[in-house]
Amino acid sequence: MTSRAPVKWGFLGAGFVASRGLAPAVHDSTGAVLQVVAARESTRAQLLEPVRAVDSYAAVCEADDVDVVYLSLPNGDHALWVIAALEAGKHVLCEKPLGLDAAQVVEMTAAAARSGTMLVEASWNRWHPRTRRVEVLLNSVDGPCDVRAWFTFRGVPADNYRLDPRRGGGALLDVGCYAIAAALMALGEDATVSVAEQRTGPTGVDLTTSATLISSRGRAEITASFERSESQGWTVAAPSLNLELPHPAFTPWREASTLRVVEGGVERVETFDTCDAYGLMVEAISARAVGEDAWVLPLTTSHAVAHAIDGVRRAAGAS
User: For a surface tag, which of 10, 176, 211, 275 has the fewest beta carbons within 10 Å of its beta carbon?
Assistant: First the structure.
């Protein structure tokens, strides 16, 4: 239990992730309070049970009683409102992908530096104990890695922003960032894209993207899709270590999960109890907001993922 005053959160957006993931995490936190939520209709914001609900994003950014702003807006709106919140002196937690490209991430990083505030990408699975364990195991890898990472599903509604190129839609930005982040974790953040292919749908966004990344530490094949059966997987094969994260490899939410490890020729299955990685993320951001020590995803990692996404687009011949 913490004895400090609770960190006051303000939300921009009241959609699925905000209502099902972040709002419950803030409510359950011992050191945070959901002070205000902004949505286009304040009645939708009120459903998240904040202290107050508003219909103005700017009002949240400018509020004197908000310490941390969380953004769960369509991808195309991230840069605008992240910078607005940072310039208003707020710490910011922004849904992935942080930016549409590496240039936006650089711009947002500079805004955070100018304001002296914290900016973190809400890649919530990175706080999950299984993902943290994989990071530790990968640090011991000796020799080249062969990585496979994929995140696919079908059934995006026709009116959803994920199919709108003007709002940052497409499989690469939506679920591809999970697979790319997994590849970079194994290969190093200096990995480059050698080949890529995208299948574009009628609205102009990529429905399926596949790519190969390479570095001195090995190679990775990644796939992201809105038109294939639901599946998430992540495997790493190296001379001294094999890892397999079964479905769901990236989004085990409030459910137990496993990690298959073959190390030195000996196989074992590590198990991870049910946990709420959204809650772990909220606790960490709240702690850092008041100067306490807690791990958060570095902006260098967010930039590396954005840079790799740019590389996929170039290799695929996308504009």
Answer: 275
